[in-house]
Amino acid sequence: MNTSVSHIEDDANVLGRTTSSGNITLSKDIPENHIKSVIKHELGHVDDVKSGALAWDDNNFYWKGKKYNKAEWQGRKDAPWEKDANKEAGTNYGR
Ligand SMILES: [Zn+2]
């Protein structure tokens, strides 16, 4: 399955996201020098979404079979899926 990358309008503090279908969105305002590392980081999430290790719905994240409340864990660098993507990509993002 291919992964698409598209630029979108997004919250001011969000540079990139992985969608639940395993595609990547980048903020249209992303600084040029962040593009490469954000894509690398998000590709870590894409792998985990496609393998089934990472999923989410309106209320929760699901990481390797464990449930994490979204209100509590959204945007945290210490979330296990962020640690995983940051380790793979050499980045330090919380999204
Ligand atoms: Zn992330």
Overall average pLDDT: 96
The rounded distance between the terminal residues' Cα atoms is 23 Å
Continuous helix count: 3
Helix content: 25-40%
Radius of gyration in whole Å, from Cα?
12 Å
Strand order of the largest sheet: 1-3-2
Low-confidence stretches: none
The total beta strand count reads 6
Principal-axis shape: globular
Instruction: Assign the structural class, choosing from mainly alpha, mainly beta, alpha/beta, alpha+beta, or little secondary structure.
Output: alpha+beta
Number of spatially distinct domains: 1
SSE run: EEEHEEEHH
General description of the model:
- With 95 residues, the protein is α+β, with helices and mostly antiparallel strands.
- It has one domain (5-89).
- It is built from three helices and six strands; from the N terminus they run E-E-E-H-E-E-E-H-H.
- The chain has helices at residues 35-51, 70-73, 80-89; strands spanning 5-8, 16-18, 24-27, 54-56, 60-63, 66-69.
- Strands 1-3-2 form a three-stranded mixed β-sheet, with helices on one face. Strands 4-5-6 form a three-stranded antiparallel β-sheet.
- A hairpin with a 3-residue loop joins strand 4 and strand 5 (60-63).
- Helix 1 crosses helix 3 (80-89).
- It is globular, with a radius of gyration of 12 Å.
- The two termini are 23 Å apart.
- The mean pLDDT is 96.
